[in-house]
Amino acid sequence: MFELGVVYRNIQRADRIAADELAHFGSATVHEALGRVGLMKTYMRPIYPGAQVSGTAVTVLLQPGDNWMLHVAAEQIQPGDIVVAACTTDNTDGFFGDLLATSFLARGARGLVIDGGCRDVKTLQEMGFPVWSRAISSKGTVKETLGSVNIPVVCAGMAVNPGDVIVADDDGVVVVPAALARKTLDAASAREANEAEKRAKLAAGVLGLDMYKMREPLAAKGLKYID
Fold first, then answer.
1. CA-to-CA distance for 60 and 79, rounded, in angstroms?
2. Neighbours of 192 (CB within 10 A)
3. Could you tell me which of 151, 135, 184 has the C-alpha nearest to residue 58?
4. CB 30 within 8 A of CB 21
5. Residue 43, Cβ neighbours under 10 Å: how many?
């Protein structure tokens, strides 16, 4: 059961260094490093291409068609945070636009992940404020009903706790539990080093069939070559 009408001010954020450095690896590598968990549903798409960020979550629970709590959340943002907004029911109204982005930027936010709609896309791109959203919609919202800030939420199918690490790019959005941030960073670093070695071999002409030793198991499955 969600708590409504509450704002938790003193949240425990993940290790800042780990939270910052995970952006360098991107969502796919972090997802693998985490054990192939933590990935939000694939309908969460960036409103413009090329953004790649990570940061600690300030969570928001919204009511449908009402963006009041995003304004409340702005006060709780610290530099390096990413706001993660869920809704009490499916809704694609345009909860967020350039005015709220201006406020979020002034507080040091790195972006927004919202299981709802976003608008003012052209201006947000010009501002360099990235958003991952369920939809893009011009439809406006009201400010009438209480939600909450900094409570556990479920955003696009993933549980997010205040202070967890969010990694987002063109490939998707991944949630890293705060307690696993450092371990995930180490695993992502090791994975990246391993992939760099493989990339060099592939660039030199080595086939994946040989590098991954696929020929024998393929033959065992019955694959035949016919000239």
1. 17
2. 14
3. 151
4. no
5. 12
